[in-house]
Amino acid sequence: MNVFIAGTDTEIGKTGATCGLLKALSNRGHRVAGMKPVAAGTTGDGLNPDAIALLRSSCPGLLYEWVNPCVFQAPTAPNIAADLEGRKIVWEAIEAAYRILSANADLVVLEGIGGWRVPLAPGLFASDIPKRLGLPVVLVSGIRLGAVNHTLLTAEAIERDGCRLLGWLANVIDPAYPYTMATIETLKRHITAPCLGEIPWLAKFDPGMITAHLTALTDAIDVC
Fold first, then answer.
1. CA distances from 223 to 28, 212, 218 (A)
2. 36 among known catalytic residues
3. Is the distance from CB of 117 to CB of 157 less than 8 angstroms?
4. Are 132 and 160 in contact (CB under 8 A)?
């Protein structure tokens, strides 16, 4: 089952969770493809670091432009980044790349950009990607001060938009936050969809370590 990884905000661990899931599914014998449909912020070679991480976590033989069909230089909201370059984000480019990846892999895991309601182009939002492709959504919650409100609002928006919320992940991103467990338990009480993994604070990016905390999520995708 292909799946869309959404987040409560930017910089809350979507890429780590996506790479960890790709590795977990690969360990079970699947040919997997990560996809970052839209990315803003590039290195000197014009590529996006998150998309590169997804490509490296995917099966061999995939092209960067399939993994990341829409990439822009400025590290800002994608519609702004596109305007700065005099370009537009076109749905057909996203859909075409997704179809190619689907034909070259058993499972495709898509990572969103920023939060749920990020504008991409007039009449097109990040939330439209899973909706138009008919994908279930996994929500990554960055556990820190403010996580309860951000996560509950995002979970409600996902379901209100007609998408299936497969489950959510609690990703600890502030090691100094003293109410981590209380925050996670509060979210468990108020979100109907199951918590499919709790990722502890990690000092460095390590998909292999993240994989160990995604067994329930991997099971949920692998059996569907």
1. 12, 18, 9
2. yes
3. yes
4. no
The CA distance from 18 to 110, in Å, is: 8
Q: Catalytic one among 14, 36, 131, 204?
A: 36
Q: What is the pLDDT of residues 93-112, one digit of tens each?
A: 999 999 999 999 999 999 99
Give strand ranges (E) for the chain. Answer: 3-7, 32-35, 38-40, 70-72, 107-111, 119-121, 124-125, 137-143, 165-172, 195-199
Number of domains, the chain = 1
* Of 200, 3, 224, 12, residue with least CA distance to 111: 3
> What does DSSP assign to residue 86?
T
Q: Cβ distance 16 to 57 under 8 Å?
A: no
The CATH number assigned to the domain holding 141 equals: 3.40.50.300
Residue 69 has, within 13 A of its CA and on its CB side, a CA count of: 19
Q: Is the whole-model pTM more than 0.90? A: yes
pLDDT, tens only, 14-42: 999 999 999 999 999 999 999 999 999 99
Q: What is the CA radius of gyration of the chain?
A: 16
Residue range(s) defining the domain that contains residue 184: 3-222
